[in-house]
Amino acid sequence: MDNSKDVIVSKESIVNVFFVIGMLIAYFGSLLPWFMWPVASTFPLFACLFLFVAFYLSHTMEHPVFDRDGWILPLVLFFIAYTYTLIKRDLNLNGYLMMVFRAMIFMALFRIRKDILMKTVTVIAKAMAWLLVFSIPAYFLYLFGFNLPGRDVVYGDNMYSFTNYYFFLLDDRSMFDLVPRFHSVFLEPSHLGMATVLLLFAQINKWKKWYNLVLLVATFMSFSLTAYVMLVVVVFLHLWIKRKNIIGKIIFIVALITTLVVGSFYYNDGDNLLNNLIVMRMEVEDGEMAGDDRVTEDFQNEFDEYVTSADIFIGRYFDREQNTFGNAGIKVFFYEYGLLGILLVLVFYYLMFKGSNDPRLGWAGFMISMLPFIVSAFPFWFNYLIPIYGLVHSEKLSYSIKDTATDKVR
Question: Distance of alpha carbon 95 from its chain centroid, rounded?
Fold first, then answer.
């Protein structure tokens, strides 16, 4: 008997390792660091190679680790929503094949035992932090004038052009800036900022851990307005989840933000990073925010005509080859997929985050998932959804919050 138990424990450890590796590939594959560009379109296949092994070994165990119910409906909605986007984009067979592998990743995420799920999210946070531990110092060495080895690289059809310093990328558009925005090995500062904020969201009650402090530093270094807004939202969602009195915190944060904004106007006569990259982008001109550059003027004119037509229900054809650069966000998604596409995404998110032991966790997950969807309009990216899902379905955290609330009532 003892020997069989040893085998079960050993097999479960192997399953855990293969599951974590699969999720790491899915997570970073969605974020597109430069070292994963060669597999940008096929990373779900490589993630599934590890998940297949995890599924198989789990199936042979006396107590499988993929044992949770409630996964069928969200998986069905994923198939419906993703198939709809593929049909609208008129993709070839490879797109549908990758959809199957993406569905496999979601199924593994939806079925894995909750304790393993949350540990996996923590491993992802630590992996991101370790990457940044090397990336941030290398970036500062560049700022201090060190001659670092690098090479010219391009991603996509000349959509992005960088100097690759291996530990971080330098966008060619910002190479002559006094202090270029930091985005580590990822395509854009907002990609890094949103990723670190969502990992911090999933690390509730653990922000004093070294790896979360690294994530917080990287968030500030990104100078991403989106990331800053999301960070404020995350702070208040954490307080709301934990049933804290938020009035005093709101007053403190408003006072802090006001002080920083006013100070940015005066420090160095306004010629500073905070004012140039954040504050000036929030100025409203002719009813539009100055930093709202997600779409071009030509697209906006076409969008204004689109919203008055009957096409808003199922969307219009969007030529990605002609309109790739400079057009992004929820407007583009709405234009391409219509109200039906947005409805399918919302239902998918609702079913994903439904069933948490604490309803506030579920609603918090649903609300925070809306922000990256509005900004980037990539609703199925694993780097957005894995951390949120991990927190929402964390059994231990959910019960501890509910018990705390019950104790206060008593």
Answer: 22
End-to-end CA distance of the chain: 46
Please give the pLDDT value at position 403: 46
- Here the contacts of 81-89 (C-beta below 8 Å, separation 24 or greater) are 81/341, 81/344, 81/345, 81/347, 81/348, 81/379, 81/380, 82/380, 84/337, 84/340, 84/341, 84/344, 85/337, 85/341, 88/315, 88/317, 88/336, 88/337, 88/341, 89/320, 89/336
Q: What is the DSSP letter of 328?
A: -
Tokens 């202090």 belong to which residue? 179
Region of 272 (left: φ > 0; alpha: ψ -120 to 50; beta: rest) is: beta
CA-to-CA separations, 397 to 5, 28, 46, 206, in angstroms, rounded:
29, 25, 31, 11
Q: How many CB atoms lie within 10 A of CB 354?
A: 17
Q: In this prediction, what percent of the chain has a pLDDT beyond 70?
A: 78
Closest CA to 100 of 117, 75, 128: 75
| Backbone phi and psi for residue 156, each to the nearest 5 degrees, phi listed first | 75, -165
This prediction has a pTM of 0.85
How far is it, in rounded angstroms, from Cα 372 to Cα 377? 7
| Beta-carbon contacts of residue 364 (< 8 Å; ≥ 6 apart) | 237, 240, 241, 392
For residue 60, the Cα-to-chain-centroid distance in whole angstroms is 34
Dist CA 377 CA 371 (whole Å): 9
Q: Which helix (H) or strand (E) holds 376?
A: helix 359-376
CB 9, CB 16: distance < 8 Å: no
Q: Which of the pair, 30 or 397, is modelled with greater confidence? A: 30
pLDDT of residue 107: 95
Provide the β-strand partners of residue 155. Answer: 160
Q: How far apart are CA 61 and CA 5, in angstroms?
A: 10
Write out the two tokens for 207.
Answer: 């922000």
Quick one: which H or E segment has residue 93?
Answer: helix 93-111
- The whole-angstrom separation of Cα 45 and Cα 98 is 7
DSSP code for 181: P
Residue 172: pLDDT over 90: no
Residue with tokens 């204004």: 304
Q: What is the mean pLDDT of residues 275-303?
A: 58
* Residue 280 DSSP class: G
